[in-house]
Amino acid sequence: MKKKIALIVTAALGLSLVTACGSKTETTTEATTEATTVAEETTEEVTEEVAEATADNASSGDAWEYGEYTYTGDDNVLYAINYYMCDELAKNYDKADVSIPVVNVIDRDESDPQDIKVYGDFSLYNYNLEGDTLVCQSGGNYPGCFHVKETDAGAGFVVTSFDVVEDGANYDESAKKIFGDLYEDFTKVSSDDETREQIRKDTIAEYCSSHNVPATKYQDYGWDPVEFSAGDSADNEVVYMGGLYATDGESDMNLALFRSSGTPVVVIQEGKNYYYGEFTTEDAKLEDGTEYVKIYVEDKVFGYHFDDETAMSGFLVDENGKSHKAVGLDESVALEMKQATE
User: Fold this and answer.
1) How far apart are CA 161 and CA 219, in angstroms?
2) Cβ-Cβ contacts under 8 Å for 200 (sequence gap 6 or more)
3) Residue 143 — φ and ψ, nearest 5°?
């Protein structure tokens, strides 16, 4: 069985920052990933107002409990790009509840597998949940070209570098240099605000559905809230959330977690037996104190533990309470398991 991808990404890039998802602040692009903001008095006033509004309307202050944004499609290259945006680009902003990218691909060149080029119009927005609204705290637009390659171990894909269109007077010149023959396509895509907002809306809807976030709208500073329905996206689809398969040679056990029509479901395969359906969970510990999640499905009790949010490794616990070393389950295998239950 194949492994799902693991991602470790580091790179340097220039940045375009937007304060409160509406007031763009001019920056100087540096190779060292730093962006120096030139803030005028009016921008400072707007920033102060945003801070005051955030303080007045902030939720209870409890730790964010819904999980980080993760790409749920089956394209490993796009997984790497989404991961990079949420992991690296988000570092340039104050901490928010969640960062959600907007990925609008213009073209893709896979002629060199060691340098896959993905051209597009990319944005990142950072939100705090206030009531039923994801309120945008900050964000930025990053048109450019991602360079991606498969890891040396063959376990996934990583972003090796990111060419970003510069702000200000060098915008057109740098865009032409990066996009080349695709420049005209880029100008059309970058000026299509309607498509960008639709992608943004669909991505937020999918995220809220797959992570049970109780939001029904999102809002930029100074703009009316935009309503969305989780049913517009993932609620009507089968979304693979992650899984594991045992690798210790003592167990033939697979576990796959899905959202099906908005409902969390699990498929567990143990030998020729399949257990499938909605489930309940509770926290548990092995005899040595290691924590894991006990999962109940079809009157059976199993368990699982992911080592980290990449869902690349962990362990499974069989019906007898014995743990087995495990690694990430490939989505194609997980879907085959689900199909076997239908």
Assistant:
1) 31
2) 100, 102, 123, 125
3) -65, 145
What are 103-132's pLDDT values in tens digits? 999 999 999 989 999 999 999 999 999 999
Rounded to whole angstroms, the Cα distance separating 30 from 65 reads: 35
Q: For residues 74 and 331, is the Cβ–Cβ distance under 8 A? A: yes
* % the chain with pLDDT above 90: 58
d(CA 290, CA 288): 6
User: What does the pLDDT look like over 169-183, one tens digit per residue?
Assistant: 999 999 999 999 999
Q: What angle do CA 66, 72, 73 make, to 5 degrees?
A: 170
Which amino acid, one-letter code, is at 290? Answer: T
Question: What distance separates the 2 farthest-apart alpha carbons in the chain?
Answer: 68
Give the whole-angstrom CA distance, residue 35 versus residue 89.
12
DSSP 45: H
User: What is the mean pLDDT of the segment spanning 269-289?
Assistant: 91
Nearest to 150 by CA among 2, 281, 325, 46: 2
pLDDT given for residue 16 in this prediction: 41
Measured CA to CA, the distance from residue 5 to residue 181 in angstroms comes to 32
Indicate the helix (H) or strand (E) that contains 50.
helix 41-57
Confidence band (pLDDT; 50, 70, 90) for 223?
Answer: very high
Q: What is the pLDDT at residue 21?
A: 65
Q: Where are the beta strands (DSSP E) in 30-182?
A: 35-37, 98-109, 116-130, 133-141, 144-150, 157-164
Contact 120, 108 (CB under 8 A): no
Burial of 267 per CB tally in 10 Å (0-12, 13-18, 19+): buried
133-141 vs 217-219, strand pairing mode: parallel
Q: How far is Cα 193 from Cα 64, in angstroms, rounded to an integer?
A: 30
Point out which residues pair with 327 in neighbouring strands.
245, 313
pTM of the model: 0.55
- Residue by residue, DSSP assigns 282-296 as EEEE-TTS-EEEEEE
Strand partners, 62: none
